[in-house]
Structure formats: structure tokens, C-alpha cells
Write a structure and sequence with these properties.
It contains 6 helices and 8 strands, in the order αββααβαβββαββα. The protein is an alpha/beta fold. The strands form 2 sheets. It has a 6-stranded mixed beta sheet, sandwiched between helices. A two-stranded antiparallel ribbon has the order 1-2. Helix 5 links the parallel strand 6 and strand 7. It is globular and about 50 Å long.
Length: 208
């Protein structure tokens, strides 16, 4: 691991950064999971400023390094992130750690895959980076893909955790900000009952 992490991740008000950048939106949203929510985090708004994206990547790399300590065993060999929301932050974390970056994509049938000539080696130590974790679906699929290739998933890191679960994964999970907001199925959504239209944000198709 040859990179450097210069941002004190604990010293930054990341919830404030989300609000100031316009990344934290309030309203009535239909998430990729199909669940409804009164708020949505569009991390691309936080990351559209290159300087802020670099600072966030250094902070998340620093948080992972500090929190995992000896568990790093020298740090990861590479960073892996699911496209497309996590591509920017994944690349910045990899730059801060000084390791290669790769991303996964969904094929036409919806399966997660490595494309564009990307490959993982047997025994390669990987950290999976997300922008925001809600259900953790794409993260877990990326972890399965890495393990099927023979790689070792050391940890998961995210800008925002809104899963509501202290341990959503079977490896250490480090996040810069935690957002505790309710989610509802459409048939029990109070905003739907009020007649407020739901907006579908983001880029990923809804889960079937």
C-alpha cells in the first residue's frame, strides 16, 4: 500500500457535507430496492466537485485503515466497486491507498460481472467500496463475484450507511456517515396514503 491518507476523517461533518452539496434530498422516493423513503442520498452531488471527492476518498481510506488496524495485514491489493454510483468514490479510495481500482457492472440479464478486461487473481485482497448502502444488495453481489474469482474480501467501506443494520455484511464495515431514516413497502407507505407521488431517483433499475 503506497498511497497516503491526509484527511482526518473524524474531523469532517459528513452529514453537513451531504446537505451543503445537495446530496441529501427530502421528499417521497422509490428506491432501487422498491422500498419507499422520505429521503434519498445522491452521492454523485457530493462527488461532482473533484476536490471534495478526493477529500472523501482520502477520508474513507483513512477510516478503513484506522478502524481495521491489524486486520488489514498490510492493506488491500485492490479496490472493487459496483457501477455506477460507487465508481467515483471507489477510484478515489484506491488512489488514496495506492492500489488498482476495478468496478463491476450488471449484464443484460441483471447479473453482476467484471467486464472491460478487468480480472481478480486468486488470493487477491480486495476492499469493496460503495457510495451509499441501503439494502446492501449490489455490495453483496460484488463480494460474491470477488470470492468466486478466488479473491479475499477484507472489508466494505461506504460514504453513507442507511441500512439500519449494525452488521449488514460478513466482513468489517466502515462508513463516514450513518443515516437512520424509515423505509416502507409501497403497500404500507404513509406518503402514498397521503397521495404524494413517489419519485424514482438514481440510475439502477428497481429490484424485481
Amino acid at each position: 500500500m503506497t498511497g497516503s491518507t491526509t484527511v482526518d476523517w473524524r474531523a469532517v461533518d459528513w452529514m453537513g457535507e451531504l446537505e451543503r452539496s445537495g446530496a441529501l434530498r427530502k421528499g417521497h422516493f422509490r428506491l432501487s430496492s422498491g422500498l419507499h423513503s422520505p429521503a434519498y442520498v445522491q452521492c454523485a452531488r457530493l462527488l461532482e466537485d473533484p476536490a471534495r471527492a478526493r477529500r472523501a476518498g482520502e477520508a474513507l481510506a483513512g477510516a478503513l485503515t484506522e478502524e481495521l488496524g491489524e486486520a488489514w495485514r498490510g492493506g488491500p491489493d485492490s479496490v472493487l466497486a459496483p457501477a455506477m454510483g460507487a465508481v467515483l468514490i471507489g477510484h478515489e479510495v484506491a488512489a488514496a491507498l495506492g492500489v488498482p481500482f476495478r468496478f463491476t457492472e450488471r449484464t443484460a440479464d441483471g447479473a453482476m460481472a467484471l467486464r472491460r478486461g478487468f480480472a481478480l487473481a486468486a488470493g487477491e485482497r480486495v476492499v469493496v467500496i460503495e457510495d451509499a448502502v441501503t439494502t446492501g444488495r449490489s455490495t453483496r453481489e460484488t463480494m460474491v463475484l470477488a470470492r468466486d474469482a478466488g479473491a479475499e474480501v477484507q472489508a466494505v467501506g461506504a460514504l453513507v450507511d442507511r441500512s439500519g443494520d449494525a452488521t449488514p455484511f460478513d466482513v468489517p464495515f466502515v462508513r463516514l456517515a450513518r443515516l437512520d431514516l424509515p423505509t416502507w413497502r409501497q403497500d404500507s407507505c404513509p406518503l402514498c396514503e397521503q397521495g404524494t407521488p413517489a419519485v424514482k431517483p438514481g440510475s439502477r433499475p428497481e429490484a424485481g
